[in-house]
Structures are given as structure tokens and as C-alpha cells.
Amino acid sequence: MKSARKIHHILKGQETSDGAGVKLRRYIGTRDLMAHDPFLMLDAFYSDDPDSYLAGFPNHPHRGFETVTYLIQGKMEHNDSRGNRGLLEPGGAQFMRAGSGIIHSEMPRQENGMMWGYQLWVNLPGSLKMSEPHYQDLQKGDIPLVQTGAYEAKILSGTLEGVTGGAKGFYEIDYFDIEVKDGQSAEIPVAADKSAFVIVVAGTGDVAGEKVVRGDLPILTSGDSIELKGGENFRVIVVAGAPIKEPVARYGPFVMNTAEEIQQAFEDYQAGKFSKAS
């Protein structure tokens, strides 16, 4: 029997800073919710004050997970130790598997204006934590669209209405940017075995029958669909992924299964092993 998901609770996020002092709002990875397996962290950055974002995220290492960065407004340049480079422009996304180890930077390529986007950390199962790093840029035109009478959806990853997103070779998650028309209702199918949440990007509307506003992040219960109803300029990001259900050892930029693996990550980083192909 099909069942619609309900809202378990709504996160409002906590203001913090990261990188070289970039101001952001952290939703997952806080005292309120340390993780939502397989999701380790979710940050939102939204500012038109250059002082809050220009310092960016200079070179820093990662191992054992993937990042998904989605830019609504602004420009951000990616460079990494495996030779990848990409300019993230408005409406674009980048998927990066840190895998066995990568050093990268994410630096604004604008001196004024709005910088608005989201970064999600997705855990990897132990069998993939030491896999080869992998990077993919998706420009706005690379992201397929689904259009119905009730909504328009950009499919970054996963499949909706038979349309599959542009991200290839990463841990399989659903990542849909959905604009629901005012007064219209939409039922978004999500596999019952996946963890799911919704980011309210703009406007007002209903998620699972409850009123939400921009900046809310509803964590959802189990079920096989998410019910949305459009209010004024209602835009959401729907994210879902299968839990990994493995032990998590986490310290700063490294996410492994054991404390010993974390120690090895530090040793490998200090030995320069993140700066070359495996």
C-alpha cells in the first residue's frame, strides 16, 4: 500500500562560518541533527555582502565521501589536486567524489552581488571510500527538465517521470529542484527505503500538508511519495538517498568507518598522497 511521507520535524539551521570565514547556515551536521544517513552535512549560503563570502574555501582535503554543490546565484571556481577545474555559474552544479583523497578549493569569481547556493555531503559505503576521486560539472543547460501541469523540476541526480539527471558515476541520490505552481498540488515519488528531506528555497507552500516558508528544512518520515502544494513562488529542493547503515568515524574533512582509518587519512594527507592519482 502506498503511503505519503509526513514531516518528522523542521530544521531552521544554525548560523556558522567555514572555509576562510564564509558565512553560512548549517542544517545537517549540527547538534539538532548530526546526520541523516547517508547525508552528513547540508550548508546553505545566501548573502549579497561580499565580506561574507569573498574569502571562499581555499585548498583543503577530503576523503571518504562526496559533495554536491548547487549554485542558484553567483559564480564559484573549483580547482583540485587531480587536475579538475570548473566554473560553477548560476543554475549549475558540481558533483565531487573525494574517495581516497583530494585537495580542492572553491573560490568566488565575483566581487559583488548575491552568492546563493547549497552544499551537501553524501557518505560513501566502506567499499567505495578508497575509490578513485571523480569530478563532474553540470552547467544549467546540462540539467534536464520535467514539466507537468503542476510543476517544473530540474533533475540534477536520480530519476523523475522517466527523466534521469545529469550526474553520472556517483552514489545514487535523488536531487530535484522543483517549482510548484501557485495552488497546484504535486506528488513526487520517492522510494520507501530512502531517507529524505526538503529544502524550501523560495516562497511559501505546503510540504506533506504542513505550511512551510523559505529557509525551512523539513525532515521526512518514511513513505513512498512527497506531497507538495504551491503557494506564492514556491520552490523546493527534494533530496533522498538510501541509508548506508555502517559505522561512521568522522573528523573534520575525513569520513571513514573507524578511528584507525581516520588516523591513516591524516598520515596519507601529510605524506602528500592526496595530490596524485592512486
UniProtKB/TrEMBL annotation:
<feature type="binding site">
    <location>
        <position position="106"/>
    </location>
    <ligand>
        <name>Fe cation</name>
    </ligand>
</feature>
<feature type="domain" description="Pirin C-terminal">
    <location>
        <begin position="175"/>
        <end position="274"/>
    </location>
</feature>
<feature type="binding site">
    <location>
        <position position="62"/>
    </location>
    <ligand>
        <name>Fe cation</name>
    </ligand>
</feature>
<feature type="binding site">
    <location>
        <position position="104"/>
    </location>
    <ligand>
        <name>Fe cation</name>
    </ligand>
</feature>
<dbReference type="Pfam" id="PF02678">
    <property type="entry name" value="Pirin"/>
</dbReference>
<dbReference type="Pfam" id="PF05726">
    <property type="entry name" value="Pirin_C"/>
</dbReference>
<dbReference type="InterPro" id="IPR012093">
    <property type="entry name" value="Pirin"/>
</dbReference>
<keyword id="KW-0479">Metal-binding</keyword>
<protein>
    <submittedName>
        <fullName>Pirin domain protein</fullName>
    </submittedName>
</protein>
<keyword id="KW-0408">Iron</keyword>
<dbReference type="GO" id="GO:0046872">
    <property type="term" value="F:metal ion binding"/>
</dbReference>
<dbReference type="InterPro" id="IPR008778">
    <property type="entry name" value="Pirin_C_dom"/>
</dbReference>
<feature type="binding site">
    <location>
        <position position="60"/>
    </location>
    <ligand>
        <name>Fe cation</name>
    </ligand>
</feature>
<comment type="similarity">
    <text>Belongs to the pirin family.</text>
</comment>
<dbReference type="InterPro" id="IPR014710">
    <property type="entry name" value="RmlC-like_jellyroll"/>
</dbReference>
<dbReference type="InterPro" id="IPR011051">
    <property type="entry name" value="RmlC_Cupin_sf"/>
</dbReference>
<dbReference type="InterPro" id="IPR003829">
    <property type="entry name" value="Pirin_N_dom"/>
</dbReference>
<feature type="domain" description="Pirin N-terminal">
    <location>
        <begin position="22"/>
        <end position="122"/>
    </location>
</feature>
